[in-house]
Design brief:
The complex is a heterodimer.
Chain A (H helix, E strand, L loop, with lengths): L1 E9 L5 E10 L4 E5 L6 H9 L6 E6 L2 E2 L8 H5 L2 E5 L10 H10 L5 H14 L15 H13 L5 E5 L7 H16 L3 E5 L3 H7 L3 E5 L2 E2 L8
Parallel strand pairs in A: 3-8, 3-9, 6-7, 7-8
Antiparallel strand pairs in A: 1-2, 1-4, 4-5, 9-10
Helix pairs in contact in A: 3-4, 3-5, 4-5, 5-6
Chain B lengths: L2 H18 L1 H33 L6 E6 L5 H12 L4 E7 L1 H12 L2 H7 L7 E6 L6 H12 L4 E6 L2 H42 L1 H9 L4 H44 L11 H30 L2
Antiparallel strand pairs in B: 1-3, 1-4, 2-3
Helix pairs in contact in B: 1-9, 2-7, 2-9, 7-9, 7-10, 9-10
Classes of the chains: A alpha/beta, B alpha+beta.
Function (chain A): Part of the ABC transporter FtsEX involved in cellular division. Important for assembly or stability of the septal ring.
InterPro entries (chain A): AAA+_ATPase, ABC_transporter-like_ATP-bd, ABC_transporter-like_CS, ABC_transpr_LolD-like, Cell_div_FtsE, P-loop_NTPase
Keywords (chain A): ATP-binding, Cell cycle, Cell division, Cell membrane, Membrane, Nucleotide-binding
Chain lengths: 223, 302
Amino acid sequence: MIEFINVTKHYPGRHHVLRELNLKLPTGQMALLTGPSGAGKSTLLKLLLRLEDVSHGTLMVNGVDVSTLKKRHIPAYRRRIGVVFQDHKLLMDRDVFSNVALTLQVSGMHAKLIQNRVRAALEKVGLGNRIHNMPATLSGGEQQRVGIARAIVHTPEILLADEPTGNLDGSLSTEILDMFRDFHQHGTTVLVATHDQTQVERLGLPVFHLEQGMLQNSQEKSA
Amino acid sequence: MSAIHIRLEAAQNALHTLVKQPLATLMTIFALAIVLALPVGLFAALNNLQQLLGQWRDQAQISLFLHQDATEQDVQQLQKQLQSSTGVVNVRYVGKSAALQEFEKNAGMTAAIKILGENPLPASFIVELNPLSESPAALQAQIQSWARLPGVASAQSDLHWVARLQAILALGKTAVWILAIMLAVGAILVMGNTIRLHIAQRRDEIDIASLVGATRAFIRRPFLYQGLIQGAIAGILAWIIIAITIAILQGPVDRLATLYGTRFELLGLTGLEGLILIAISAILGWLGSRLAVGQHLDHTFS
């Protein structure tokens, strides 16, 4: 369960990015986070990843109070989450295998097990035959799938995605978002930030719509 | 994965990074080695100077003049006591007649002595001391205690030069220590700067690893090993530089020593000293890396 309770985020000397935000996403649910640029979508995801600190309020994630989480506990907390970015954030000097394996290496998993898990994750995203390719040799869609494999290889409790289809065309966007829906159907809590209205309508999933740091659709505050 | 495996992997990662950039790695190692060889070389030079000065023990002579009525037993007892004292290298007894012969030979006053009728010169002990065995104050105290021994009439010595020599050596040691500390800081900065460049090259990797839950230790470890490995290799190289320098200097030193009618073998580092040098160098490398990577991670994890 992801729960924002009166969460505010502001930067010193700047306006509020998020204001008194209240939202709830139950465990195993999938929702979309929409809103124009600068509405606070990315900040909300950063708070969930604890890349930013909550200014006021409480943020609970699967029983963990993220707003007061001690620094030394952040790495372990992040290992429970998978994250996908619009720009993929791949290591261009490492092959596909190494990019995906990084998530497991940081948790100290044995090399043999890493091999099996990475292969399985790449099969899941349809890149089983690209395991030793360098990212530069892959298309944009394939690079995003490597990013997704890296995010799901450790079977996270929560999967976050920040505009994962932002750089992709229509059919590829459908493919990628359907992949997220698959993971959700296997029990993962999924929150995807997107401004692709066509996909929002097609998926028919609960939507949290942000405008100027505030949640607009009060009837859908709880997914 | 076991803790050993994680560390082995980090060490492999560090080695891989170093081998991938051989020129940069070699330049760092050479810079560190030269920085380390300087103070260690000066320490070796001081050791050699100390060894050389220790050979001038005949210049640290004390004459203990005996009473005219000192018996054979007094002389034997005194000799035993002197020989067992700290820092004493040699004890030579000069009897009354030997003293007279020496006086006649050196001063050429045979006629004047003959007028006196009897030999006025006392028997004495010539004690040769290692001037660096004790502090000048301790040596002086020892000489005064000898002067109070039964049978001894007076003691004569000139230990001012010993005090001066020891003061110069102490000054040299302090100067080398200050230089060593300054150069150690320099070594840390050299390593810190090198690691900072490596961090800049691998910033994306660090950021992504942090995003997927890497701990500070996981991110830091390969950089620390890089510093440790480069530091240790620089220590070995510094040892080699000092050994080569000593080998080159031995020839001229031999020729100089021959001119003075003596022999002098330059001392290098012992095996233990060499290992200590490598260990210190590795620690300095590690410390430089730790400072650089710590600073970066404070920013990444803040």
